[in-house]
Amino acid sequence: MPWIVGVSGASGTPYAAAVLRALLARGESVDLVVSRASRLTLLDETGISFRDAHWRDDLREWLARGADGKPGTFDVDLDGDGDGDRVRYWAAGDLAAGPSSGSYVTKGMLIVPASTACVAGVALGLSKDLLQRAASVTLKERRPLVVAVRETPLNGQTLRHLVALDEAGASVVPASPAFYAGATHIQDLVDFVAGRVLDAAGVGHGLYRRWKGEIGGGSRPPA
Question: ω before 113 within 30° of 0 (cis)?
Fold first, then answer.
C-alpha cells in the first residue's frame, strides 16, 4: 500500500523533498499529488518546472537537490527493484484518480507543506482538487493524515481550521525546526521537520538526532 504525499502551494518544497526521499529510502511506495499552486512555489524555490508529461524527470531533479539549492546533492532511486512503480503520480485536477475513492487503499496521507488555503479546504471538506479530496477520503476512512502547516503568523480563522482537523483525527505538525539536535546546515533543519512529519505518521527514519535527556548532547559527535 502506498503513502499519499500531497504538496500544496506554501513555501517549503525542501520539506516535501526530504519526506519523499525518506519514504523511498524506507522502501515505501508513494502516490504523489502536486497542486497547481505548488508548481509556482517549486519553480521559485528551486528553478524546476514540474510538468505532467515529464513528471518523473522533474521529480528526480527535485529530489536530488539539497535544501541549499545545490543540484545533485542526493542520489535518488525512483524505480526500486526496476518495476518503475515506487512513485505513482496523479494530476491535481484528476478527480477520478485512485486516491479520490475510499476503496483505493492507502497507508495514509502526508500534506507537506500545507498552505492555509489547503488547510481551509480540507477542514471544510471542499474537495476542490485531488489533494483536498484525497485528504477528505483519508479522514473519512480513518487513515492517518498528517498536515505540515507552513505559515506565520496564523490568524484566528486558520487556527480554527487546524483545531477542526485535529478533532477530525488529523495530526497537525507545524513546520517548525528545532535546534537541540545539533544542526550545522540548512539541510539539518529541513530534515528535522521532515522527520517529525514521518514520526507523526509512524514511519521510521534517521533524519535527525533524537533528544536523550542530555543537555548539550546535540553538540557532541554522534556515537
Answer: yes
